[in-house]
Amino acid sequence: MSDFDKNREGTGTKEWSEKSYNIQTGCKHNCLYCYARANALRFKQIASPEEWTSEVIREKAVMKNWSKHEGVIMFPTAHDITPDNIKPVIETLTRMLIAGNHVLIVSKPHLHCIEKICRELSDLKSQIMFRFTIGSHDPNVTAFWEPKAPSPKERIMALEYAYLNGFNTSVSMEPMLGGI
């Protein structure tokens, strides 16, 4: 049984992984239900909700020297992978994976970003599982709740691309937004 298939106990992110990791504050997708934005406000990492869409990379987090961890690392959990952060995302993933870690990549995926990750990390694909969030098939529903995130069609195209290139794939249907 692979690390991705382990039976886990716990709630929240512990249902999917033993460890979580992020490299930035903020997210351009600006999902209306975003818990990370609420936490950033609560803990004064940002001054206003509008500030959330300004992605700020934490270089120290990108350059971390990784060792092997037991179980799965979920990345990211408090921001998404976007065309603006794909270079530091790949650098972070490379460091995690070369250390021997298994990584659950969670995203509302931009097809271009997934294509780039698949190309650059193909040799490490056995250590990766993609989990893409698709809470509705209706582009009008997702455009309201996730105004800057890729459309459901683009997310499905990214899922197909990763799967056809031999990567482990899965889908998270949360939150359920309707219009399925």
Please describe what this structure looks like.
With 180 residues, the chain is of the alpha/beta class. It has a domain at 13-23 and 61-172. The chain is 31% helix and 15% strand. The chain has a five-stranded parallel sheet, with helices on one face. Strands 2-3 form a two-stranded antiparallel sheet. Strand 5, helix 4 (111-120) and strand 6 form a beta-alpha-beta unit.
Describe how the helices and strands are arranged.
Elements: E1 19-20, E2 24-25, H1 35-42, E3 56-57, H2 59-62, E4 72-75, H3 86-98, E5 102-107, H4 111-120, E6 128-133, H5 139-145, H6 152-164, E7 168-172
Parallel strand pairs: 1-4, 4-5, 5-6, 6-7
Antiparallel strand pairs: 2-3
Main features:
single chain; 180 residues; alpha/beta; five-stranded parallel sheet; two-stranded antiparallel sheet; 6 helices
Order of helices and strands: EEHEHEHEHEHHE
How much strand content do the residues show? 15-25%
Counting DSSP H or I runs of 4 or more residues, the number of helices is 6
Shape: globular
Rg, nearest Å: 16 Å
Mean pLDDT: 93
The end-to-end distance, rounded to whole angstroms, is 32 Å
- Give the uncertain stretches in residue-range form: none
- In helices, the fraction of residues equals 25-40%
**Largest beta-sheet characterization:** 5 strands, parallel
Multimeric state of these chains? single chain
Strands of the biggest beta sheet: in what spatial order?
1-4-5-6-7
Q: Could you tell me the number of beta strands?
A: 7
Secondary structure class reads alpha/beta
